[in-house]
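Sharing a chain and its predicted structure for anyone who wants a worked example. Both blocks are below, sequence first, tokens second.
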Amino acid sequence: MAPISEIFISQEENVGMKQVHFNRIATPAIQDKKGFYSYKLSPVLEAGDKIALDFELEFAPKGVAGMGSDSHILYNGTFLNSGSFPHIGYQPIMELSDEKERKKHGLADKERMAERDDPKGLSNSYIAHDADWIRFDATVSTSADQIGIAPGLLDKEWTDKGRRYFHYTMDKPILNFFAFLSARYSVKKAQWNDVAIEIDYQKGHEYNLDRMIKGVQESLTYYTQNFGPYQHKMVRIIEFPRYASFAQAFPNTIPFSESIGFIARVDDQDPKDLDYPFYVTAHEVAHQWWGHQVVSGDTKGATILVETLAQYSALMVMEKTYGKDKMRKFLKYELDRYLMGRGQERKKELPIAFNENQGYIHYAKGSLVMYLLQDQIGQDKVNQALRAVIAQHANQGAPYPSSKVLVDALRKVTPKDKQALIADLFESIVLFENRALSANAKSVGNGQYEVTLTASSNKLKADELGAEKELPLHDWIDIGVDDKDGKPLFRERKLIDRKDLTFTMLVKGEPAKAGIDPDNKYIDRKPEDNLIKVEMPIK
């Protein structure tokens, strides 16, 4: 290892960095106000040597009343994460990404990520480039009427000169990914086995606390049974103001926007409504396995090991808690989100196993891909593969795993007659055109009806720029009949190996609609025509 004579520091542009101090002579060199700094060291840093950095940051309120999207420090509702802190070394994530800006500076177009198995890319986790697993110990100071929060367990609390102090420690290494929050919180507590559950919320926002607690409990039950132990002693959900609409998982700590959880209105009497505070909770708890135990390298496809698997995990908790009938609406929502995303893609769409941190792919398509796979080969098989991934890669340093680890594990548990699914779902961009053409029914007595459905099917493969070619059909697809309330009367899986199709089905109860892939499990470019009204004889 060569000695280090100059240290580079990257910093968010909208955060002022002051009082930078090293415990040896460090002369400022590059001082770019856009967020890039360097310091020449004397003496140089030899291999195995250490250096301490002290710094002070300044956050100035932005936007109307200080409520801009880049606001961090608020009168009641501070939330800042490790992205706002200095990062050591060159950070590729801070490079210009806008094509026009790059051209203005004579730069070539930027690829979003390194190739999937690039050794340099896999030498860093996609969470952070300047550190791997760190020891975390933090003291949070805040106003006397607020609670200061950080990852870990509260070791000590005290008051000094009118301010409250909270000391948090983590009993095991964590990724260089953390957050600090402070507000005048009310606290609701619960328990799951030996794990404490705590929700810190704004008084008056009690609407969905029980949904969130149930989400944590159901998630911990499913994930520990199917993936492995939870690594902490607490799960803590913390409300932050609605200047942003997301939730984010840090070690044992989940900041959660009031707008998508705490003040959400869910109608339990509406069969079409979704309990999304429950679902978002399940997704974020899943990150304690996918992201905080298994974390991928910074290469193409990396995000399926984190975001796609969190989506899948939450879907399984949702299905277990609310039943399969609730999944159709969610799958349709994700399908619409994926189709819209690919329609707006400005560069190129890639198969999910090679995606470049594209949300419409790893979130929306990821939900569809994983749900269809478990529907076809069985949830137990998929979870067997995921347990193997955790057993081999949890809490490991570089080289970090690529998406190949997941694809190979799934391929290993997939039966021979379904192997083509893996290539279609993960390594290709495959689209379907399933369409119900007509449906007729006649009563056969005893409340039963014979339904005749005619339908068509087509399978296409797209390249990264959208050019398509037809593929031969050999796919197991559901056909089905629903009643007037949209409840299934009939489902049967059929091997679809030709374009023109006719089916006869015997159902109990009066049919209203019939179709092919009625629950939107496949990625269909026009899902609205999968079902058609059933025509009944004129009485």
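Comments welcome. The chain has three domains: 128-290, 294-427, 432-533.
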